[in-house]
Write a structure and sequence with these properties.
The chain is an alpha/beta fold. The protein has one domain (about 5-80): Rossmann fold, CATH 3.40.50. It is built from 5 helices and 4 strands; from the N terminus they run E-H-E-H-E-H-H-E-H. A 4-stranded parallel β-sheet has the order 2-1-3-4, with helices on both faces. Helix 1 (about 10-20) links the parallel strand 1 (about 5-10) and strand 2. It is globular and about 35 Å long. The termini are far apart. The relative contact order is 0.18.
């Protein structure tokens, strides 16, 4: 698995990450388009895929299936330009639990 990082998000978010140095960015407009690109990134063995919370919410089942039994790729959900989603349930704790196999205590 490579140590490559990719972004799949709206065009403003992708532009921001490209300005920050992330070379692989994919601007998408539909959940179907995002799912196709994420599948391609998984096949390319990209280790970290950054998506917006909106995309994460729309593709929840696919993301859970794609990452459920594997440590990589890590799919990180970030807020888009409109701010965080109201339905967030401590995604960082869940990510840590999945990656290292233990749950952090509050």
């Amino acid at each position: 698995m490579s140590t490559q990082i990719a972004v799949v998000a709206d065009s403003d978010t992708v532009t921001g990450f490209r300005l920050a140095g992330i070379k692989e960015g994919h601007a998408v407009e539909t959940p179907e388009e995002a799912e196709k690109i994420i599948r391609d990134l998984i096949k390319k063995e990209v280790s970290i895929i950054i998506v917006t919370e909106k995309i994460g919410d729309e593709l929840r089942e696919f993301i859970d299936e794609a990452t459920g039994s594997r440590a990589l790729p890590i799919i990180i959900e970030i807020p888009d330009k409109y701010g965080p989603s109201e339905e967030r349930v401590e995604p960082l704790r869940e990510l840590i639990k999945r990656v290292i196999g233990i749950e952090l205590v509050k």
